[in-house]
Amino acid sequence: MNREFQKRLCGIDEAGRGPLAGPLVMAGVILTLPIDGLMDSKKLTEKKREALFPLILENSDYHIVTFSAKQIDTMGISKCLQSGLLSIQEHLPGVAYLFDGNSSFGVVNIETMIKADTKVPEVSAASILAKVTRDREMVEMGRRYPQYGFEKHKGYATKAHYEALLKHNRCAIHRKTFRVRGLDEPALF
To answer: Is 140 known to sit in a ligand binding site?
Structure first.
């Protein structure tokens, strides 16, 4: 992307594409002032992400889109991603858009870049907003459904999560269309 001709850039990233439970969260960010310390949210500590979160909110135009597990089951993950990209374009119009990854999910005027969250500050900021928003919701879901330990694994397919699923089956925030070894197919262990 030739940044000298693009005065304003909206970086876009998501969190929660692959977990067994919880939402998919997408964020679009247009930085209004530079912020030190931005990088891919997965490379930051939780403490650092939490410290950067309010700085990003104060120094950007942003839009956050959340899709519940039920919406993911109904629409499919690709349609959710497509819908999120369209929502970000609608709420943050008239700029260039750069989405982390290699697919624009059929949405026009979206450029993509693999590992953009490690290379482009706006995408790093979007990565942080999406991850912190999702992680906070999963901590809350951990309080609501303590038997699953969502506050620890955030809904991802860890050994502890599998064990909780086998013992308690799914709850309301599990993605029913995501297959689980031992529940939906024979256990391999």
So the answer is: no
